Structure formats: structure tokens, C-alpha cells
Design the sequence.
């Protein structure tokens, strides 16, 4: 497994808007999902973290998110809805900047609608960590990095412990 396809902070490709994945493209998804899975697993092996990855992070500008928390899940054309007015602050991290935390504000609750790999419509209601995670991943689909959502110019810090693992 390798991280060679992962685009890192500063790469202008991470700021491009992703296109909808069309129904005709669903049959071609397996190889892309395998690359997303392998990249996420390689990141976990190297850094001991990582719950999800968006297709733009490997240079594919399609609206696709791969989650692997309890089990692998693929979200095709996800759309966030019903974002709560209540927000919370969180130190956000990202596969595209593994040695950095960014303090951002996220909606405490939201729902997400998407299509799964079998072509079925799904809808989830989320709060707290899952709400934050999927807001982060959907930002990637819109070409937005968490660094652009930093609360202020003091909202960046080195991620403790990571540097020692990569020496």
C-alpha cells in the first residue's frame, strides 16, 4: 500500500470543484474505491489515524467519499442538508496535511443524502464527530480545505506525535 496518489496541502488540484458521478459511471467505481481504500489504509498504517477520504484527495474530481470506521462505506454524490444553527469548535485534521491541526467551526448536527454502491438512495442524520467528518469530506468535494475554514490566524498547530512516527 502506498500514499503516492495522495495530494497534499498546497496542491492546486485540491481546490477544484468535483463533478457529479453519473449513473453510467457506477460500474467503473470498483477500481477507484480500491485506490481510496488502499490510500486510507496506508495512511492509517503510517500515521495511526484516518476515517475517510474524498476522491479529490487522490486527484479524481468526482463527488465520492469513502468511509471506513466500523465497515467500508461509499457515498456517491453526497449532499449535506439540515445543518443545525448550533456549531462547535474542533481541531480538524486531514490526510492531505498529516502533521497539522486546524481549529474550525462545524455544525453540530446535519443530515446527508447520497447514493450507495448498489445505486440505492440513502439518508443519514448525524451529530458531533460524524457531522464534523462528513462536513469536512464534502468540503473536499467543493474544493475547500479545512485550512480555509480556520477560525483565526492562531488556529493552526503542529500535530503532536506524528513527526516522530515518520522519521
Sequence:
Amino acid at each position: 500500500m502506498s500514499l503516492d496518489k495522495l495530494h497534499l496541502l498546497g496542491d492546486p488540484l485540491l481546490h477544484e470543484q468535483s463533478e457529479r458521478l453519473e449513473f453510467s459511471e457506477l460500474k467503473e467505481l470498483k477500481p477507484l474505491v480500491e485506490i481510496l481504500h488502499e490510500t486510507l489504509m496506508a495512511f492509517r498504517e503510517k500515521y495511526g489515524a484516518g476515517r475517510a477520504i474524498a476522491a479529490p484527495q487522490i486527484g479524481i474530481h468526482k463527488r465520492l467519499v469513502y468511509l471506513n470506521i466500523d465497515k467500508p462505506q461509499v457515498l456517491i454524490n453526497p449532499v449535506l442538508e439540515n445543518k443545525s444553527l448550533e456549531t462547535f469548535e474542533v481541531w480538524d485534521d486531514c490526510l492531505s496535511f498529516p502533521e497539522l491541526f486546524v481549529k474550525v467551526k462545524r455544525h453540530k448536527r446535519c443530515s446527508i443524502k447520497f447514493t450507495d454502491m448498489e445505486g440505492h438512495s440513502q439518508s443519514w442524520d448525524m451529530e458531533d464527530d460524524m457531522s464534523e467528518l462528513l462536513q469536512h469530506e464534502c468540503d473536499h468535494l467543493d474544493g475547500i480545505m479545512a485550512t480555509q475554514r480556520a477560525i483565526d490566524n492562531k488556529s493552526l498547530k503542529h500535530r503532536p506525535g506524528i513527526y516522530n512516527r515518520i522519521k
Notes: The beta strands are 52-54, 64-68, 72-81, 87-94, 97-107, 109-115, 121-127, 156-158.
